[in-house]
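Figure caption, in words: inputs first, then the predicted bound structure.
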Amino acid sequence: MTHRVADEFLLDHAAGTAPEPIAVLVATHVALNAASRRALRQLETIGGALLSEVAPAATAADALERTLSRLGPQEPPGAAPSFAGRLPAPLQAYVPHGLDALRWRTRGRGLAEAVLACTTPSAYRLSLLRMAPGGGIPRHGHRGPEFVLVLSGGFSDQRGRYGPGDVCFADESVEHRPVADADGECLCLAVTRGPVRLKGLLGLVLNPFMGA
Ligand code: ZN
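Bound structure (zinc ion present):
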């Protein structure tokens, strides 16, 4: 079973109204998940059809083209690309010199984070997370939506297991403790809004994940 982003986020993405960090995460998810790719194309087709009723066809085609161009190079239909040491196309501009050139900060045992620079200001934070085998993010709650997209490896929380291309979504109602698979490092792309609320004494000591 795959974990996809909700259609509302695909819709925002197709309309071009998502804040940059979410747009990058959704585009990367779409590049890795065939079902979301199909759903996005359907939404774009519907959007294009709606536009063509109120505007000249050229405008609708142009709008669709602009939407598609934001996603970067398109894979042939049916292709199911996966992360294999090379970052998905929508992410490459944000990691121009490779993963090792990023400024990684330790966020606790078995967790490192590198914040990625965005060109437009928003309330969201875009970052890469590296979880060591068996490591992860301490138990925490949320002050806003959080998306964690697996690029390689995998992790679990009490709601399920997430593999490459899967998105773990959490909001104010969720408290969880993501734990990386024991058999290898897990690399994720994360979008958060506001600092996460770490639970317990560990949270007082670490002050990590999304605070700095
Ligand atoms: Zn979380």
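The pocket of zinc ion is lined by residues 140, 142, 146, 170, 176, 196 (CB under 6 Å).
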